[in-house]
Each structure stands twice: as structure tokens, then as C-alpha cells.
Amino acid sequence: VTTLATTNKDPIGVAVVGAGYWGPNLVRNFQNNSGFQLHWLCDLDVERATRVVGRYSSVRPTADLGEVLADDRVHAVAVATPAGTHLEVALAALEAGKHVLVEKPLAASYAEGRRLVEEADRRGLTLMCDHTFCYTPVVTRLRELLHSGEVGELQYIDSVRINLGLVQRDIDVVWDLAPHDLSILDYVLPPNVRPVSVAAVGTDPIGAGRSCIAYLTLALSNGAIAHVHVNWLSPIKVRTVIIGGSKRTVVWDDVNPMLRLAIFDRGVDVATKDELGDQERRELLISYRSGDMVAPALGEREALAAMVEEFGRAIRTGTPPLTDGRAGLRVLGILEAASRSLAQGGATVPLTDMA
Amino acid sequence: VTTLATTNKDPIGVAVVGAGYWGPNLVRNFQNNSGFQLHWLCDLDVERATRVVGRYSSVRPTADLGEVLADDRVHAVAVATPAGTHLEVALAALEAGKHVLVEKPLAASYAEGRRLVEEADRRGLTLMCDHTFCYTPVVTRLRELLHSGEVGELQYIDSVRINLGLVQRDIDVVWDLAPHDLSILDYVLPPNVRPVSVAAVGTDPIGAGRSCIAYLTLALSNGAIAHVHVNWLSPIKVRTVIIGGSKRTVVWDDVNPMLRLAIFDRGVDVATKDELGDQERRELLISYRSGDMVAPALGEREALAAMVEEFGRAIRTGTPPLTDGRAGLRVLGILEAASRSLAQGGATVPLTDMA
Amino acid sequence: VTTLATTNKDPIGVAVVGAGYWGPNLVRNFQNNSGFQLHWLCDLDVERATRVVGRYSSVRPTADLGEVLADDRVHAVAVATPAGTHLEVALAALEAGKHVLVEKPLAASYAEGRRLVEEADRRGLTLMCDHTFCYTPVVTRLRELLHSGEVGELQYIDSVRINLGLVQRDIDVVWDLAPHDLSILDYVLPPNVRPVSVAAVGTDPIGAGRSCIAYLTLALSNGAIAHVHVNWLSPIKVRTVIIGGSKRTVVWDDVNPMLRLAIFDRGVDVATKDELGDQERRELLISYRSGDMVAPALGEREALAAMVEEFGRAIRTGTPPLTDGRAGLRVLGILEAASRSLAQGGATVPLTDMA
Amino acid sequence: VTTLATTNKDPIGVAVVGAGYWGPNLVRNFQNNSGFQLHWLCDLDVERATRVVGRYSSVRPTADLGEVLADDRVHAVAVATPAGTHLEVALAALEAGKHVLVEKPLAASYAEGRRLVEEADRRGLTLMCDHTFCYTPVVTRLRELLHSGEVGELQYIDSVRINLGLVQRDIDVVWDLAPHDLSILDYVLPPNVRPVSVAAVGTDPIGAGRSCIAYLTLALSNGAIAHVHVNWLSPIKVRTVIIGGSKRTVVWDDVNPMLRLAIFDRGVDVATKDELGDQERRELLISYRSGDMVAPALGEREALAAMVEEFGRAIRTGTPPLTDGRAGLRVLGILEAASRSLAQGGATVPLTDMA
Prior knowledge:
4 copies of one chain form a homotetramer. By secondary structure, the first copy, chain A, is α/β, with parallel strands linked by helices. Chain A contains 10 helices and 15 strands. In chain A, the strands form 2 sheets. In chain A, strands 14-13-12-11-7-10-9-8-15 form a 9-stranded mixed beta sheet. Strand 14 (286-295) of chain B pairs antiparallel with strand 14 (286-295) of chain D.
């Protein structure tokens, strides 16, 4: 079993497992981070791994996970395989004493995810979920805006993530795309606000065998709602999140680099019951704010680079990463409830039993 | 009781009732249409009516509906009062033998709307609902695209209509905004496809006493779904309808005059079961179309002018207008079901009992 | 000759001359302004005037300008005829003692425009040029931003005004469209900055007999430049003005109602010579600002309504309107110099002889 | 001196010189192209080269160009150093018998560029200029549209390339940005149309010591004009090229991935003189087309990958690359003429003496 002295300034030895869509991005970012030393890229299809590594690299491709886990230079493993294999791969890595980073979703079920969290806890190892969007400058700012109270009381969240996307073979559009929206939600919600139930409807108009379009409605503990639209079939790409608050409303349009984040001092105010006597007078006191919009300057940091940096920080300090296994588990809880709701035609499913 | 010879080439005498938000638009368009002669603008607030008519016009303002209905020169009445008064005003007009145009929604309830339809039927009078959007060049084209089969089999409709809007005092956001989406849906759906159920969730985060944000999900008879997002609180104005079909997907962005309607030859195709043996092979045969986009040239006709023209045509020919009372009634049926669903926390409400 | 007591609270009697493209807008706005009483709409084509007035109005159409000018109730005349007739019509109105509003450009030449200014001066009558854009909330704000020093020292102005426009029969694209840009420039420039020369190139690729596309470059007295692109042949509509200053840069995108005016705290700073010793060090001290963008809330006032209001204010107070005859004359001076430059293949023409 | 058998299927040995802004992109693309074997990355600042190569690569960093040129495995050299050093580095490479790829602009002057072209000709070596944009799917399509006659007769080109850009220390904005526009122009113009003169104005409002904003106007041999706006100081990024033709007008908006290329059937037609008798009748026969817009599907090929592929093809076949030294030289001719025009305050400079 590998042990890692936290004061050690030497690079953290790392291996990437999975050379498909996401793995090459991890390879590139671990190579660019001086706090890591990438040793292996592991994939059942070793030719694919070889192609990804390229002719110039000293990183070794392999199809043998055992070889990787047996390498004492390897302190950490990043898992970018299909969701159905996360448990097996990540568990083996934890059992070999490696810190683990897992691509979203953390696992194929809440039970599997919990098993990983428990195993990491037992062994005192870092377990991190690659909720990449949480490391973008925009989401960092959204969290600040919501946690600081700058937007006021949270009123609603509307998130649209649609595109002509790859129809996945093992998971539906909810498990493929909604982890982004749900992990962002988990990250930015103020500490006292949590999702309490979810209802989901979906449709499979092309006969793919799973939902290709879905709508999720989450009730939040403060009475606000969050709505998520995910869609693999849209010819246009829309990635817009609107966060309404009592003081400000924020619009994040991720496909508009010229105006990615806009903070509006526009909204509707209603004088509170305390100030007024009755229904009649209240109705007279609706007022409209129509103030300025501010688009704050944001850094240009690549999210994945920041995520890799945070993985390193968590390993070295022994403290949980910003998007730790528990965050991944909370997302799994919502996904599973959404699947139950989908199967029941949109019934509202409570989230009371979540971690 | 007024009678109108359908071969008569003389202008149709008309009165507008209601000088609030929409009435002035009707006044202007009746004045600009040579097939009509506008005689009256009636409003309980006669000063408001006087202001709207202006200092230059021969149109007479009045607060007395009886005076208007007693005028034999008046063959038709356009009702632009609050929804709660539609039954009373329109019924009085029908009983006075006038043809009637009613602003959406047709009435405050399905029962009230049915009463108007029946009364107009009994008297052989034209009853028309001002579903203005149905007379835009875009919606006319959408109907052609769906009825002709050019988009293939309808797969889904997603409609977003959000803005910083007036918080109405008598109706919620569903009754205020969704009539637009539902009347468009009613107008463009191919003849063999009908809504069969609706589920709705809403929220009132500002304490207005009624839903300010709502999401409607309609199941259609061919298995497709239609989803509607209406919102009074959004700082940005979005009016986008995506209509997915098996051959083409159409995107209508009403706030983008440079690209209002786009027809995409982009999508996902799955080989049908007949062509394939089993699940495994089917999954291999997902294919992606990535063809051209065409933005068809559209005329610049003002929708309200075309609506007024259609009202005249229907009166003169004695044939139903494109958006007749029954269309208005079908929309009311969905609105009422949506309200029931809202009250039940989003339960699915069937539409089987609709006209 | 009409005289108007400035303390008089009665409406100012007014006539509009010209019922073509712009006249109807003036008719509508004079009718909506309680400070005016519109009596006449005059056009050589009396049927056109009759159509514009409509069947309901008490405004009288006529083809006889003499009849209008002889009417003592008429204190003011608004001229919306082709530019080539402005001198004749406006001069007759001034000679009849009427205050005069003239559509842009003020006249067909600088000499003609000067004649109007002199005649109005001699008679103590208001002469106003309808530089409509100067009455928009955006341009009002631009003037404030530049006059207050908020944008810092003016560095450059780039104005693009292109569209598929009507190819005029009497004037080229410079005289048709650039009056907008030049009148805006005249209005917003800080008092100490004036255009000192202009160079213009144009092209007539369709054989229309006059330039359909043109580029103007103006040198300003503080060393900045202003560039104007006008084009009748563009399939897309672009109306963007960028105003670069040493502290802020402002972008006005008139076809984007969601973000019409944006104030950027972005730019390049170079340490001044005083602070540094030599070329080498200066080059090292280029720095980049990348601050927030603010889109200020703007009112929704219709520009033409504000213009008409200002015409009334000027008449009643006897003080010059914001866009008086002299402003119109300054624009004519640049237009004429631009025409000379066009004829000389783009040579720089000084503006030293301007009023 | 290296010789390369054109039938050889072995990878072409290559070295990159310059590890600044552009060099790393070349490194990455040569590594990804199986037709090349990258051996060296050379930079005077060897630490920078080492950083770019990274800890994992077998590519060798060096500060010694002589070492690179003496390596017989190196058949080709890609030069991505500052423009002022292109002659020295590229000439040394050619004299060492290497094929050469040079970043734009080809050299610091027309004379220097010609020297490179002549040297490559004399030695029978490939000399290519990295006009990257010419290898984008959009520009490939633009060339087809113009060469095939699909857009009809070319009427005008308007190119805007503005951004908050790096203020270069050795070259002005014309030499920094306009090579993109001019190389695209060179590539897409139909064979019978060539630039015949250029006029340029510029300004340096920040005291950078060189023009930061410039406007170029090129007269083309068929009477059309091309206008280029380049600007380092704009807070917004605009990269729009409009190409007007007698049959179609094409708009390329490079910052809008949803609608990068749009082909408009919109425009103005004037009946020709042959069809008509005189000026009066001609003016009556202006007509407006207002047809559909088509956004053609374009591939997603990375331009730099295609450029590298073309470099390989040219070397192996001994035929000129699409953007050969002569293309680079033609661009230099226009740049030099533009600089002369700038120095003369915008005078028109003929291009008659160009290669």
C-alpha cells in the first residue's frame, strides 16, 4: 500500500485509467501540472491508449490495471472509464492505497457511490469527483454571489443544457448531462438551502432505448425551485443558467464568451405583509426594479487545470477537496430519485434519505 | 338584432371594448383596415378611452356598453377587457346580434368559454379568439412545416416565454402567458396529433399571491411531449420555440430579427427495429445528420392586421375564422387542467373531456 | 406673419409637409403631443396625404402649401420632403413667419442650409433639424459620458450603419445615412473637440449611378479619428458605434435591445513619457485593463416624441433647440466635404471653412 | 545538404524554431501528424523551449539553430520567430537544404520576402507561408463560392478584425493583424481579380509608438473595393467578413460558432444599360431580392492540422503549397504599400510592381 508524506514536495505519481473522450483531457492536465508526475495511461484498448499518449511521450500505455496499481510510484489514480465500471476500478485503486479522482457521475448508483465514500473514509484516502464546471471562474463567482447574500434570497434556478449530443449507450440523458447541473447546484447553493424532492419527465422520440430529452424539477428547502432541461437532440447549443434572487438575478450564458456572466439589478418587488394591511393594498405595492447590468471581469483559468490543482492540494493536506466524494454522492442521490420519478411518469420523489 | 348581408361590400361597423393595454392596438388596426368602420371605443374609464382615441379621431369614446350594442351600425364587437369580464361583455354582444372577437384567453373558465361558443353557434354569429401569434409569418410557416410533413414526425416541442413582465392581479403567469404557447401549439400541430394530458408546477417567490413562474409538460397523442416555460421574473427576454421532427428541427427565436426562424437538417437517426435484429446492433446504428441550416425569407406582415383581416373574412363568408371560439376553448381546457395540476403539486391531469 | 406669445399655454398650431416615409411618423408624434395642435398634412400627392391622415382624423390633407402657410392657426411647419426641396419649402415657411423643423439633412447643400439659418436668425424664428437619434436615451447617455469626462480622453470613434436599404434616387449613401452618424458625432463630441478634415471613398457596384457603399474618415481636433461605414447593400443590419476613451470604451449596438449600451473598463494603458526615460522602458510599461462591463439602465422614451417636445420647448422659450439649424449646417459642411473627397478619389478635405 | 526522396513514406523530420506564442501550436500539430517526426524545438530562450516541450516529450529543446540545421534527420524547419528574424532563420534553413514553413508575415519587407522566394526556387525547396485561416473550412468554402461564380460578380469585401489585442513591440497593427485579412483575400479572390492599389489610415491614441487602429481600402482590378478594419484597442472581439456579390452575399462571423457562415439571397438588382434606354427608366428598375439564407454545414477540421498536412503534401510531391512563398510575398507587397500610404496620410499607393 502506497503512503504519501503530506509535506513531500515531490510530484504526486499519478495514473489515468480510461483513454476515451475525457481521459486525454486528464492526461494533458496532469502533464501540465508540476505537482504531478503522470506514469501510466491505462485502457482495455491499449492501442487507443497508445494513440492518446502519442509517439513522443514517456507516459506508458497499458491495458493492465493491476500493473498500474502495483506500481509504488503511483500515489493517485484518475478514473475516466464508463460510469458502470467506476465502482470496480475506483475500489481497486482505493484498496491499493491510491487516492482517487473519478469522472462524474461518481458511480452507477447511490449504493455504489456510498461504498466508495466509505472505503476512502476508512483508509483516510482522498476521494474526489471531477465536477469540472465547479472549477470554472463563472461557477466560482456564482457560489460567492449566493453565499455572500449579494443576490438576496434565492428564488429560482433555471438551467438549460441542450445540444446535438452523443446518444450514450449505457446511460440516459439525465445521467449523462444533468450531473453537470446538479453538481453546480450542489456547489453554489447557500449552506442552508438543499434540494428536498425531484420530479422528472423524459422522452425517447428516436427509439434509442432511453430518455434523450428530460426535464427535472427540484423543490429546494427554502421554497425555491430549480428546473433543469437536458436534451441530446437539439440542433442548437444552449447552456444557460438563470439564478433569480430577491436582490439580483444572474444569467450565465456559457456559449456567449462576450457576455458569459451578467448580474442584473432588475426584478419585481412586493411589499411584505408586515408592512401592509391587506390583500388590496399589497397588490398596489408591486414595484419593478430596472437598474444596471454588470458583467464582471472573470479570469481565463482552464477549469480542468484548477480541478487537478485542487486534487493535489487535497492529497497533500489531507483535507477534503471542494468536490469530494460526498458531493458526488449527493448528486447520485438526486439522479437516482430522478430515475425513479421518470419511471413513475413524473411523480415527485423526496430526497430525505440522502447523505 | 343586427344582420349583415355577406355579399355587402360596405365596411363592417365595429366597436372596441376595453382601452387598456391591448385595446389601442385593436383600435389602430381596425382604423387601418378598409373593410371595417370603427365607431366606438368603450371603457368603464371613459377618460382613458378618450385619451386613446385622441383629439383628432371621429371614433367616439363611451363608458356605456348598452349604447354601443344598441347602435345598429355596429355589426361586430372586439373585446379587450380583463379575462374575468369576457363572458359578460361577449355574451351581451352576441345576444345583441354582434359578431365577436375576444382577446385571449377566450374566457375565465372552460364553462364560460363553452357558453360563448354555444351562444355564437345558436345565433350563427362569428366568434373569434385573438390568438395574435397565429397570424405571424413565422407561425404560419411553422404550421405549413408541420402539416406538410416537411419536418417529419413531430418529436418534441420546447417553448420558453420569459421576461420581466407585469405581475397580473387577476390571473397567474400560466393564464397570462401560456395562452400564447398553447394557441400556437393548437394551431401548428398536425391534425392527427392532440394534447392528451398536462402537468404543471409553479412558484411564487415574491409573494404575489399567484404563480409567477411555471413549467407545463403536455403529453401529445403521438407520444411526443411539449414543454412550456413561462416566467414573469426573468431579467432577460427569451421567446424561443424548438420543434423537433424526425427530418428537420425548427428553431424560432422571436427576439432575434436577424434569424427569427431556422430550419436545421441536424439530428440523430436510429435504424428501426424492422431493419435490425437486436438491441446490440441497433445501438451501433445511431447516426448523426449535420446538414445545412436554412432561414427562410418571411414576409413582414403585422400579425394584428392579418388577424383583423381574418375576422372580416369570417364575418363576410360565414365560415369559421382560423382561430375560432373552439380553438379558444381548447386552450381554456388546457389552462384549466394546468391549474388543477398546479393545485395538486404537479400531478398529471388528462385532457380527455375537452371539446 | 404669425407671432407666438411664448407664455401662451395653448397648443402650438403645426402643419406637416411631406407624407412619404418620414412624414407619417411626425404626424403621429405631433398628434400625441398635447403641446401641439396638428392642422394640416401637405403633400403634392394629396391622395397619399389623405391615406396617411386616414378616415378618422380631423387633420386636413392638402396639396397646396400656400393654403397651409396662409393659415394663421399654423405657427410651425415640419418639413419631411426630399432634401432637394428643403430650401424652397422651409424658406417659404420662414418667410410666412412659421417656426420650422426640417428632416435631415437640413438642405441639399451647405449654401442652402446657411440661407435657412440666416433667414431664421433674421426673423427670430426657431429653426430645428430633426436629428432624431440625438433624442434617444442612448445618445443622451453617450453625450453625458463624453462631456463629463467619464470615458477619459476621446481616442477613436468607429460607426457602422449598414443594411439592405432603399437605394435613393436623388442622393447617395453618404447623404442618406451618414447624417445620422455625423449628427450623433456633432452632438456627443466634447465641446473642445471638432472634426477638422474628412476623407471618403465609395463604390457603386450595382450601377445605381451613385455610391451605395462608402467609408468616411474624419480627423478630430484632438488627434482622434472617427470612421464611418455606410452601406445600402449589406444583407445584415449592423448599427454599432464604438467610442474609445482613455478610461472607458463604450459600445452601442442598436440592433441588440438586450445590450444596447455597454461601458467597458477594458483597454490598453501606456505609461506616459514624463514618467519614463526612454523608448525601451516605455515599451515595457504597456498594461492591460480587463475590468467589468456595465450596461446602464436606459429609459424607453421614443426619440421622436422627445424631439417633438424639444421643438415645442424651443418655440415657447425662444431658445435654440438641442439640434438647431447650426447643428444641421455643421453636418452639411462635412457631407459636402465628403462629396468633394469622393470625387477626388479619397483625398483629405479640410473642414476649416465651417460655421 | 539534406535531400528528401519524394516517394519516401517515412515521416518527414522537422524542427520548430520559436517557442513563443505560435510555436507551441506548431509543436502540437507536428506531433499529431504521422507524416512528420518532430526532432527539435529551438529558441534563444532554451528554458522557454524546455517548458513548452514539457517533462514527458522526446522532442529536444535547444538554443542552437546550427545544431538543428546540421541534423541530417531534419528535412524541414518551421519558423515561428518574430518577423524581423524570419529572413535570417529561414535563409539559413534553406541554405542548409531544408524545406521551410514561415509564420505570417513571410518576412519584414517585400525585399526580404523575395530573397526567400528566390532562394527556395533556386534550390527546389518548398517554401510555405503559414496563412492559417486559409485552411479553415470557412475560407475553403469562401474560395469555392467565389471561384465557382456562385456569388456572382464580386462587388465588395468588408473585413473587421478587432479585439483587445497585444500591442506588439516590433510591428504595428497593420503588420500584426492585416496579414490575416490580406492572405484570406489573396486566397479567395477569383483568378481574374487582383488588388491594384491600397490606401491606409491609422492612429496611435495610446502613445504606443505605432498605429494601434488602422483602416485599409483596396481597389480591386474589377472595380470592387475591399476594406479592412484592424484594431488592437476594441473591448469587444469582432471578426466579420462580408463578401458582396451580384448573386449572393456571404457573411462570415468567426466569433459566432452557431452561425459562422451565412449565404444570403438578399440584395439589390439594377437592370443593365443594355436593357434600358435612359437614366429615368433605369432608376425605376431597381429591385430588391429578399430570399432565404443558408448556413452550410462545415467540417470541424482544425486549420493548423490541415496546414501541416499541406506542408507535408507539398514537400513529398514537390509542388507548391496552397499558400506558398509567392502568396506570402503578395501579402508583403500590400503591407509595404499600406505602410507607405500610412506615412503619407492615406494617399492611394498603386500595387503595380508586385510579384
